[in-house]
Amino acid sequence: MAATVQREQVASAYGRWAPVYDMIFGPVFRRGRLDAVAAAERIGGRVLEVGVGTGLSLPSYGKGTRIVGVDISEPMLERARRRVQLLHLDHVESIAVGDAENLAFPTASFDVVVAQYVVTAVPNPERALDEFVRVVRPGGEIIITTRIGAETGLRGTIEKWLMPVTSRLGWRTEFSWSRYERWALGAPGVRLLERRALPPLGHFSLVRYLRLPDPAERTANAPAKAKVVSA
User: Fold this and answer.
1) What is the CATH number of the domain that holds 72?
2) Is residue 100 in some structural domain?
């Protein structure tokens, strides 16, 4: 039976990662962080960063962008709050404990939702994606950086084999692109804008979804065709 990721398991795992997270994962995820922030900055306004962690991304946002950060791990958030204080990041509205699958915000509260390396860490990824759609305004974007699992072949076999180990560490290895596609087909009001492999090796990708405007506005403002860039 496939291993699953549990909420308490994730919170506990990232609590343990907190003291060394910046040192270990900071350089690995740097390109994805910068590309996600750049995409969010093109829209601006009010941004919800789900899985804000230790706040590594926060200094990269422009001062005119208002940021709300949530994460499931209080030890990670303690470091994020310290970063906000030390760097005088006045554009950060709040940093709080929050569950990606049950966001405590009204519908259409944000211009952008950014979720960096979060989708593969939550127990129910599709539920989290639904929440991202709910809290972003029509015409806003959902910007995801993530590792996309293989469907078949040796890599796919290895990823399934590693799931019992990685689930204890706080993430899954087998979340494939077909699950994103199935989710998008069943999720009204979203459209894929971009799927782009991130350098250097293309193991991670940046994915952008548009929260479609209300039906009356769609005909006049039809979005461009999604851009998919190979590694």
Assistant:
1) 3.40.50.150
2) yes
199 within some domain: yes
Residue 209: closest CA among 231, 230, 229, 187: 187
Q: What's the number of domains the chain is made of?
A: 1
pLDDT in tens, the chain (231 residues): 334 456 666 666 656 656 676 777 777 788 999 999 999 999 999 999 999 999 999 999 999 999 999 999 999 999 999 999 999 999 999 999 999 999 999 999 999 999 998 998 888 999 999 999 999 999 999 999 988 865 555 444 444 544 444 444 444 556 788 999 999 999 889 999 999 999 877 778 999 999 998 765 555 555 556 666 654
Structure tokens at 131: 């929440």
Structure tokens given for 85: 């204080």
What are the backbone dihedrals phi and psi of residue 79, each rounded to the nearest 5 degrees, phi first? -70, -35
Domain with 209 in it: 7-114+128-134+144-214
Residue 17 maps to a domain: yes
Token pair 């990685």 in the structure block, residue: 166
